[in-house]
UniProtKB/TrEMBL annotation, chain A:
Superkingdom of the source species: Eukaryota
Xref: Gene3D superfamilies: 3.40.50.970
Organism of provenance: Brassica carinata (Ethiopian mustard)
Keywords: Oxidoreductase, Pyruvate, Thiamine pyrophosphate
Xref: InterPro entries: DH_E1, PDH_E1_Alpha_Subunit, Pyrv_DH_E1_asu_subgrp-y, THDP-binding
Lineage: Eukaryota, Viridiplantae, Streptophyta, Embryophyta, Tracheophyta
Subunit structure: Tetramer of 2 alpha and 2 beta subunits.
Catalytic activity: N(6)-[(R)-lipoyl]-L-lysyl-[protein] + pyruvate + H(+) = N(6)-[(R)-S(8)-acetyldihydrolipoyl]-L-lysyl-[protein] + CO2
CDD domains: TPP_E1_PDC_ADC_BCADC
Named cofactor requirement(s): thiamine diphosphate
One Pfam family recorded for the sequence: E1_dh
A GO biological-process term: pyruvate decarboxylation to acetyl-CoA
Protein name from the UniProt record: Pyruvate dehydrogenase E1 component subunit alpha
GO molecular function: pyruvate dehydrogenase (acetyl-transferring) activity
TrEMBL record, chain B:
Alphabetic keyword roster: Chloroplast, Metal-binding, Oxidoreductase, Plastid, Potassium, Pyruvate, Thiamine pyrophosphate, Transit peptide
Designated name of the protein: pyruvate dehydrogenase (acetyl-transferring)
Quaternary structure, from the entry: Tetramer of 2 alpha and 2 beta subunits.
Oxidoreductase among keywords: yes
Function text: The pyruvate dehydrogenase complex catalyzes the overall conversion of pyruvate to acetyl-CoA and CO(2). It contains multiple copies of three enzymatic components: pyruvate dehydrogenase (E1), dihydrolipoamide acetyltransferase (E2) and lipoamide dehydrogenase (E3).
Amino acid sequence: MSLSRLSSRSNLIPRPLSAAISRLISTDTTPITIETSLPFTAHLCDPPSRSVESSTQELLTFFRTMALMRRMEIAADSLYKAKLIRGFCHLYDGQEAVAIGMEAAITRKDAIITAYRDHCIFLGRGGSLYEVFAELMGRRDGCSRGKGGSMHFYKKDASFYGGHGIVGAQVPLGCGIAFAQKYDKEEAVTFAMYGDGAANQGQLFEALNISALWDLPSILVCENNHYGMGTAEWRAAKSPSYYKRGDYVPGLKVDGMDAFAVKQACKFAKEHALKNGPIILEMDTYRYHGHSMSDPGSTYRTRDEISGVRQERDPIERIKKLVLSHDIATEKELKDMEKEIRKEVDDAIAKAKDCPMPEPSELFTNVYVKGFGTESFGPDRKEVKAALP
Amino acid sequence: MAARIHGGAGAGAATALSTFNPKKLVAPSRTNLPAARSSKRCIVAAAGSDASKSLRVGHSQKLIANAAVATKAETSATTGTGHELLLFEALQEGLEEEMDRDPHVCVMGEDVGHYGGSYKVTKGLADKFGDLRVLDTPICENAFTGMGIGAAMTGLRPVIEGMNMGFLLLAFNQISNNCGMLHYTSGGQFTIPVVIRGPGGVGRQLGAEHSQRLESYFQSIPGIQMVACSTPYNAKGLMKAAIRSENPVILFEHVLLYNLKEKIPDEEYICNLEEAEMVRPGEHITILTYSRMRYHVMQAAKTLVNKGYDPEVIDIRSLKPFDLYTIGNSVKKTHRVLIVEECMRTGGIGASLTAAINENFHDYLDAPVMCLSSQDVPTPYAGTLEEWTVVQPAQIVTAVEQLCQ
């Protein structure tokens, strides 16, 4: 992305910094320190500082990627209403800061596993828009070859383990990945994400117990958007302090609508997990859409509540204000960026619409692995068996 | 009630199963098992096609006298060598060899480490390989099965032990949705090379909840393979093959078979996961069985031979997928099928096998496929009642006589 030089502007506002900064923002890594919106609340540990190290480049990247995620989810909404996406579609708009902040704090060797609200996390891990839309529409070039759907996005080379439909089942998987990381001495951590609804699952506590016993580098991230489908958190959980639920495991409560707070918390959690074992992060966030596309989202909460959060806490607006106040880009430049993003998303959708459906033979592929595996077939076995090593 | 089947020679003959401890069994008829078998002859043959021979290292085709029901792997070069051990030791040997061979193999389960395993299958492994490779888990089947599957997604090869197969019902979600399906829903990105193993089946008055046969519940899960071992030879072979397989494999052991003794080869061998085992070739009727019922069938076979029948006994071993090749060849030869299983009547392995045989080999059948299964009841505690929930040799004899009319 290229931003035009607006030298006239830098003369108008007497800021010594802006005169010195060249407007080639794409390579600008001038450090900026940003204060998080709220202090962290900690359980059994010392909270990290509120000052987050960042840079102008990172601010712009945050804005751009979050706007891309937002646009992608809204486009998915329209596609669903046009019946191009079927089944279940769980949208992440409003929660983008969690995905972005986490990515900024970790490497691609660190693993992320999440539940079914996975489109944006997949994008953050390096997935392409085309793969997302193709998979959502069940096409051949989708990230899971069209056989997974909205709830089953995976990206093995970026250590993104999905994409799971059964609430809570991904947390033991995540602790297993952390176990493997410890076994192979990888110096990496696993972020096992779940929601406030899943926080009441027994298997979470089982997995947490084992992680704490065996000192596994697992970080449990509760994306608390305050509603488990249609049930508000105060109706589902006796103790809504999800970061304290670990009891003997330390926890941190984070403002999930502030990407920098998320980044700081994840950085802190990674250092902690590599040294001391599991930690719980509770991200206080909000989703604008209903639980899924089949849920209007307004029967259990008021429209005022939704628009109130949108006005006061929207993560993209927050970054936008920071970008403007730090004079990194102008209002117009950001609008141009958004237009560009819109076009990018539309192009990806058009390309995905052209992609064909999977071949009928794909029905039977990847049920088993070939080799010592087998193929589902009848009595006339013509397959040559593999030689054992 | 169950007929007493008397063998000719005295018990304790130096045969493979002569040290089969009758006290481990409930029904009186089984106390004669060693004697009944000592004079049996069994032909060892590679099942089905020639292609399978290459996979049975050291397996021979010669007639072996006095070998009871186990198929033996004695080549002419190694006759006389080999070592005798019990079935649980064979499992342990297989597990240990695979752990030596591949550092990614690890074991997790309750009491597998310091305690040595509740059936001693993992005895000594924790001392040898350390706590990171032989992991004592807390009692949370759902979580540790999920963790094993998560670890497998990254490339480790965990062997997950359910202390009793029945406990794995708590982990059904993980086994069905994650273990079986992740390879498919990820478009092939992740493989799940786990082995889930544990003892199941009706034991000696263990009560209803500890006498379950889970193979019927798991058989519909797409993406998994299921095998059942029955002798020390195939226990070791199947364990090794399951660990090496890239697919998730559920290995069903039986509580009452852990103390079977047999001589197995010294050299390394592996059994094919998808192949059935020809226990006794014959001409008149095909009897399909697996796990512990194999021994009931062989006991019944002794009586049947005396009465002039020539049953062909096949241990199907591979419960998912069925080895329809071997089974088909047998059906084409004998034209009569009897299935003897320990699974429940409703929705059990026998039910699926009956359907598969009827679908594929209907033209070759002279009589309807008969299936003898356990009763559709929770296993009672009382010894006599428990005896009657499972199929007894006398019932097998009656069924064969009925089919062969």
